Input
Amino acid sequence: LNNYGIDIWSDDNFVIEKGLAKVNFKSKPSLISIVKEVREQDFKGPLLLRFPHITKKQITTLYDTFNTSIDEYNYNGTFNAVFPLKVNQLPTFIHPLIQNGKEYNYGLEAGSKAELVIAMTYNNLNSPITVNGFKDKEMIHLAFIARSKGHNITLIIEGINELETIIGIQEETHLPCPNIGLRVRLHSGGSGIWAKSGGINSKFGLTSTEILEAYEMIKENEMIEYLTMIHFHIGSAMNSIKPLKKALRESGHIYAELKNLGAENLNAINIGGGLAVEYSAYERNRFYSLREFASDVIFTLRDIAKQKGVDEPNIFTESGRFISAASTVLVTPVLELFSSEYDLEHLKLKESNPPLIEELNLLFKDMVKKTSYEYMHDAIDHMESLLTLFDLGYIDLQDRSNAEILTHQIIKKAISQLEVEDYEELKRLDENIQEKYLLNFSMFQSLPDYWGIDQEFPIMPLTHLNKKPTRSASLWDITCDSDGELPFDSKKALYLHDIDLNKEEYFLGFFNVGAYQDTLGMKHNLFSHPTEVNVVFKDEEVVLEKVIESQTIIDILEDIDYDTSDIKNRLKENLDINTYKILEKYLNENNYLKTIWSYND
Ligand code: PLP
Output
């Protein structure tokens, strides 16, 4: 794997040119040039680079594809979309999204009171707001207030009690009523790992009995004019389109039956989210194109409307992952390669060494390309024997240190002599000769889905991409937790470069991290959100907008409710003023590692 699967996951957003990972837009800046510009401002630690032009591309592609299919099929409904705020609520992401979606009337979906407040504050008035999830009286009241402000808002009810509350609030406040949508509990489930969001056992939605009950209740309370939408969501990251087709048929018939019963303003089917993103560098996981997806939705809904003699519904989607994932890259500086501890300069051979160590020394000196594989094998065997000898007390600590250094040097020398074609051979030994890369980031904060559900993310170094990566790599984060590790997996092998970090820096990019990771992340070891920056293009020029540094130590402590004046007062005790000034400087820096050099460097 020499191009890190970029053809699978990048969708042409990033390319490799002259050994560098580059943004495939306008002046095509390299990611490393952007990283260097940010780090020159003394922002160390991990970085989140956001590219609003990629979000814009996704919004445009979504609307253009659906509108093309609508024209092709002479479909009479319109296409509409909202961004589900739970996928990324951060202002640095949301403000450009709203701006970029304005020409399409791209709206927002809210699943909690806080998200609804974001939507009713910032959504363009012409763009729709949908409200999902479990709602209390206060949340429903907020939706009425949003409607009063002029928003085009639809409350999608998950249970009959929510409908009762809507009726109650209207009687109580006489505010204009939001539109009402019914989330239906389909018997067809989804595909992919989040499939449990759909299906008869799902947490959400109304059964057919409840739908009829809701319809009667709406009619009795003379609110039929507000019933406008049928909603379903069969799960995130759908890898196949088949379950969607089933869900469309089911919901299409529910829509048509309610219309024929008398729901005259019912005019939309909201198909939820679920468009998948390619996360793997090794194999494709999405088995449909957006064009196919759009055509299937339109064709199926047109067919049912015709069959039942009703108007073709407007279509709403709530895809979040598809819109946001590609827009963000996490960049982590490599702090250390663990085998660098085994530098030759530390080798201290004795006048007389145990025979196996003499043998290792000879293997190292005599190794040539032809013998590299065999000698590496022998060295690994000898090392195991030497460790047993140490446990039995036959060799001392200096011998053991020499054995470790020589074995690592032999492995390094052998790998550097292997050709690309030898990779398959190398893989057989990977478990034994992997290099551990220590990365300045927290897995828990920045890749929570990797930690929680083994979600794969594409990984690629930002530089050296014209050189053969020779080390089978496992990645460690800086938390004090052994779960903060991406171990080497020979089935999905990651190879990285053998770098002397005393001479040059090396950064890894984790791609497609713009969906869900930002706010699902947690502050294990109090590592907070990385420094983030929006990378925008003014004509050809790259401009770094909205640089937000990772929280300072004192702010992190304040966030978890420590009294920071008390902390400062206590720290001042028994310290002279100059020492305290240094301490105060540290309190005002972020929590990630800043210096990686030893005192002599
Ligand atoms: N709409 C609803 C109701 C959801 O529950 C979800 C996510 O689970 C989404 C939209 C967004 O899904 P995705 O990000 O996979 O497009």
